[in-house]
Amino acid sequence: MDLPIVLNPQSTLPLHHQVYDALRCAILSGRLLPRQRLPSTRSLANSLNISRTTVTQSYDRLLSEGYLETIVGSGTYVCAQIPDDLLHAPALESPAASSPTPIQLSQYGQRLSQTPFALQAEPKAPISFRYGRPALQHFPMQVWRRLLARHCEHTADWLDYAIDFQGYLPLRQAIAHYLGRARAVQCHPDQIILTNGTQQALDLIVRLLMAPGMELALEDPGYLSARRIFLSHGVNLFPIPVDMSGLMVEKLVHHFAQIRLVYVTPSHQFPTGATLSLPRRLELLAWAQQTGALILEDDYDSEYRYGDRPMPALQGLDSHQSVIYIGTFSKVLFPALRIGYLVLPKPLVALFAQAKWLSDRQLPSLEQRVLTDFITTGHLESHIRKMRSHYDRLRQALVHCLKQQFGDRMTLFGEKAGLHLMVKLHTSLSDAEIVERAASAGVGLMPAHPQYLTPGDRGEFIFGYAELSAEQIQIGIDRLAKSLSI
Known about the structure:
Elements: H1 15-29, H2 41-48, H3 52-64, E1 68-71, E2 75-78, H4 107-114, E3 127-128, H5 141-154, H6 169-183, E4 192-195, H7 197-209, E5 215-220, H8 224-232, E6 236-243, E7 246-247, H9 249-255, E8 259-264, H10 278-291, E9 294-298, E10 323-328, E11 340-343, H11 349-360, H12 365-376, H13 379-406, E12 410-413, E13 420-425, H14 431-440, E14 443-444, E15 446-447, E16 460-464, H15 470-484
Parallel strand pairs: 3-14, 5-6, 5-8, 8-9, 9-10
Antiparallel strand pairs: 1-2, 4-11, 6-7, 10-11, 12-13, 13-16, 15-16
Helix pairs in contact: 1-3, 2-3, 5-12, 6-12, 7-8, 13-15, 14-15
C-alpha cells in the first residue's frame, strides 16, 4: 500500500519529522482508518526512497504517542481509538429542565470569594518608581551559579524527599547565626521553620492561631497582602494609626483588650518607612505580656538602613515568648528564591512544623543547599554591604531631586531605610489625576491609598528606587514636576 506522503528535501524539518506529520495528519483526517494496517518500515522506506531508520523513527514516535500499535507477527496498525479522540469527548446529555448545580464552597472559600482581590496595577512607564524589587542586575550570579554547579556535580541526595519538617537543618543553623549577628534575634535553629516566603508564613500563623471572629490589630496604613490574608480567614481587623515613631501603641493599649494578634513592621514600617521607637517597643512588649497576645514582627527589608546600624529586631527584646518573627530573602537576594522563615516561640514549633509539612511538604532542596553555602561562606553579608552602599546612593539622589523640584510642596516619609520612601504631595489634584499626568510624561507612580483600610485620596505615593539608576531618578522626578506644575 502506497501512502500519500510528499517529502520536501528543502524543508528545515528533518525527514523523520515530515513522515511523522504526514502519517499523523492522515490518521486524524480519516484517510488512515482505525485498525488499518500500515506498510512495513522497509516497504515505506523503499517507496519514499529514504533510509529505513528514518521511517523507524517516525513509527516509534507515533507508537509512543498512541497513534499506532504493533501486533506481534502481524504488523503495525492504526490504533482503534486515537489519542486526539479523547480531546473531543461528547458532552453528557442532561434533562432540558435541569439547571447547573452551584458548587458549594467551604467557609474559607466563601470568605475568599468576598475578599477584594484586585491587584494593584504596576506602572508600565519607561521610568517606573514601582516598589518591592531589589536591583537584580547586581546579584552575584557567578557566585550563585558556581555554588549551584557544585551541588549538582557532587551530590544527588537533594533529589529525594526531605525528612525534616522544619526545613534543611544546615540552612536553619546558618539563618540562626546570621540573625543573631545582624538582627540581634535570640533563637536556636530548632525554633526556625522555613517557608515559601512571607505570604505562606502569615497564612500558617492565622490558620493555626486565629478563628473567624477573633480580633487582630494591624498598622494603618499597612501591608495590603497581609490584610487580604487576614480577611480571608474571617478575623476582625482593628486598624491602629501610625506616626513618625511607628505604631501608636497607646491606641492599642487603651482601646482593645481582646486583641489576639498584632501585626507590625517595626524596623521599617510599610509603607511610611517609620521606625518603631524604643519606648513604644517596650510598651508593646509589656502589653503583649499582660494580655497574652502575640506580636507578628515582619522584618522584610531591615538590612537596608542608612546613616547608622540596622535597628535590632523587636524579637531580641522579648523575654516572654510574645513575638513571632518573620523574615525573607526576597529583598536581600531575589524574589524568585521563595525562601522565608519563621522564628517561633518554642511551644509552637511542633504544631507549625506539622502544618507546614501538610501545606506543601518541603521547599526545593537544591536551593536550600545553595543558600546555605551562600550564607556560610560570607557572600550574603558581603552582598548586603555592597547593596546597602548602592541603594544609599540612589536614595540620596531621589531625596535630592524631590527636594529640589518640590521643596515645601511635599513631605517625605521613611527616607533613611529600606528600598522605598513615601511622599505626600501638597496639591488639590486627585491621586488618579497625578498618576495619569505622570504616566503621560513617561513616569510610573504607585499611590499609597490602597494600603489604608479606609479608602480615599491622600496625595501619598510610594517611590521605589532600587531598580533605577541615579540618572533615571533625576529624569523621572524632573518629568513628574513638569507634568504636575505644583
